[in-house]
Amino acid sequence: MDRTEYNDDKLDALWAAYRDACPDPEPSAGFTPGLWKRIEARRSTNLMVFRRLAQLCAGATLALTVLMGLVLIPHLEQTPAVSTTYADALAAEHPNTYVDIFAGEIK
Amino acid sequence: MLVEFELIERARSGDDGAFNQVVQAYRKRILGTIARLIGRPEDVEDVGQEVFVRLYYSLDQLRTPEVFEPWLYRLTVNAAYDYLRRQRRRQESRMSDLSEQQVLLADALAGGKQRQEEERRTKIREMVDSLLGKVSEEDRILLTLKEVEGLSLKELEKIYGVNENALKVRLFRARQRVLKAYEAQE
């Protein structure tokens, strides 16, 4: 048996001894109540995070709405969406059509 | 399985009473595994509670109750790994030092055979802890699960989510590293 093989066997024996030297510990009386405290604490932390996130989202939405109102409304008021009438626009696009029609009617 | 599948199903659907029963059934085994994985008796309950808190908040992700035990072991391994990493980062991992509980236990023991037996156990724990302190957290956890906890390759496959051959290679290399540390210590 070479040295490595010998140490290999000793290592196996050491694992077994370690297993015996570390039996399963008995949980203390406070284990389960402590566990539920931690569960509750994490639950309220999660709720607080969600609440904070919701507040942030609401704040950001409000700020964006106010900003859009301040920037866009004056801009829209200055540039009317329709600056000419429908008839004017038609006349500008087809300047001769009306003349022909009216000319035909007169004839 | 220490509990019925039906109890796991009930715990999974949000029944706190059922979850409590699952905790009662598994806590001793899990605390034992953690004790052997981290080697610091005074922190075992803290890590154990963390395992069950994680279980509580991840139980809805469990596909079927059949895979409950490997799932619980995976959570245990992850919590132990996080603990060991934190300890290493804080440089508090003085494996050769006696832990608080060990000191208290040694003080409390009255002498005679019981004391001798406890001294022998403490020596073995210190020796293995010191040995495992010389390899990575991954090696430490894998070897403890295989050699000390006695988990089979099939069980380790489910916990680690890798195939048997890859596990054999990892185990062989981890064992070689521990053996090297053991030879250097001798």
What topology does this entry show?
The complex is a heterodimer of chains A (107) and B (186).
Chain A: H1 3-21, H2 31-78, H3 86-93, H4 97-106
Chain B: H1 5-12, H2 16-38, H3 44-58, H4 68-90, H5 100-108, H6 112-132, H7 137-148, H8 153-160, H9 164-185
Helix pairs in contact in B: 1-2, 2-3, 2-4, 2-7, 3-4, 4-8, 7-9
What this model shows, in words?
- The complex is a heterodimer of chains A (107) and B (186).
- Chain A starts with a helix and ends with a helix.
- Chain A contains 4 helices and no strands.
- The mean pLDDT of chain A is 81.
- The radius of gyration of chain A is 42 Å and the shape is elongated.
- Chain A has one domain (29-106).
- Chain A is 79% helix and 0% strand.
- By secondary structure, chain A is an all-alpha fold.
- Chain B is mainly α and 186 residues long.
- Chain B folds into 2 domains: 1-93, RNA polymerase sigma factor, region 2, helix turn helix motif (Rna Polymerase Sigma Factor, Chain: A, Orthogonal Bundle), CATH 1.10.1740.10; 133-186, Orthogonal Bundle (Arc Repressor Mutant, subunit A), CATH 1.10.10.
- Chain B has helices at residues 5-12, 16-38, 44-58, 68-90, 100-108, 112-132, 137-148, 153-160, 164-185.
- The termini of chain B are far apart.
- The A-B interface holds A 3-4, 7-8, 10-12, 14-15, 17-28, 31-32, 34-35, 38-39, 42 and B 20, 23-24, 27-29, 31-32, 35-36, 41, 44-45, 48-50, 52-53, 56-57, 120-122, 124-125, 127-128, 131, 147-148, 150, 175, 178-179, 182-183, 186.
User: How much helix is in the residues of chain B?
Assistant: over 70%
- Most strands sheet of chain B: none
Roughly what percent helix of chain A?
over 70%
Strand content of chain A: under 5%
CATH class of the largest domain in chain B: Mainly Alpha
Largest interface: A-B, 28 and 37 residues
Low-confidence stretches of chain A: none
Number of domains of chain A: 1
Q: Helical stretch count of chain A?
A: 4
Radius of gyration of chain B: 18 Å
User: Which oligomerization state do the chains in this entry correspond to?
Assistant: heterodimer
Shape of chain B: globular
Count, helices of chain B: 9
